[in-house]
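Morning. Coffee machine broken again, so started the prediction first thing and wrote up yesterday's gels while waiting. Chain of 311 residues, entered below exactly as on the submission form.
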Amino acid sequence: MRAERNVHERVVEAPADVVGALLDRLSSPDDPISPSPVWPPIRFDRPLGVGADGGHGFVRYRVTAYEPGRVIRFDFPPPHSGHHTLTVEPLDADRCRVTHVLEERQGLREALIWSLAIRPMHDVMIEELLDNVVRAATPEAPLRPAHWSRWTRLMRRAVWYRPKAVAFPAAAALARRAFDEPDFTDSWQLPLDPGMPKAPAAWRDVLPFEVRASAPDELLLGEDASHLDFRASVLIADDTVTLTTVVRIHNLRGRLYWAVVRRFHPFVTRLALRRTHRRLAYAAPPAPVRLTRDARAGAAGDADAAATART
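Came back before lunch.
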């Protein structure tokens, strides 16, 4: 066994109370510091506090200590032996230090996995979390974005969400109306983490077909040919995106063609959905930027409503 200690810290030009208030919003719907959607959001089974159980992605932990605005400690579940902490330490009236420390006892297997795969991703994720702290507390402060090595990008791609097969969504009205009696259907789904676009039009390029119809929560792509007709529905619902394929075959040539293509279709569809999901996640603005933008949009909407009420 070996003891691993991994430390990241950042001096923030803002009072500790201001930064501590950001820490207290961790895992909440308006969490300003989790680096989602490039990284899985931090989520618990209850509001932040001692006993809250959850984690991010495949990394699981429980809150075992919480001093609001100052310290959060997360312990890994057995058989893992370790914890990580987030702390805010006042330096003076207008400055503080935010520190993340991970400590864990690792066997040979765990040490190899940590060194080769987990640590490159962990280091970037924590640096981007600290970047978000700085963005939220001091929006005008210059930032040098965390460096992604080629290996880190490869590891992040390797553990990206994988589409799961689901039933033909009842809410996919455009897809259901596409053909009276389709010869083939399948549906693949991915979660939409905070920051992912929820307008179906943003997913327009998931497959290279023209737009056939659109609705507030669904986009229908498709192509017709003499041997078969093809439709692909992108449905946004319940914090998920679902790609549904509907095929109608016209003749023997279509059946022969589809008998071959069907073998590769699930792989190609899953790959297209996963690539688009990853591309849109990387293009999403950081949490503090999103929250500021949404707050301004909400304030503008309230002002418009008030002006309308006065007229």
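The mean pLDDT is 94. Going to sketch it on the whiteboard this afternoon.
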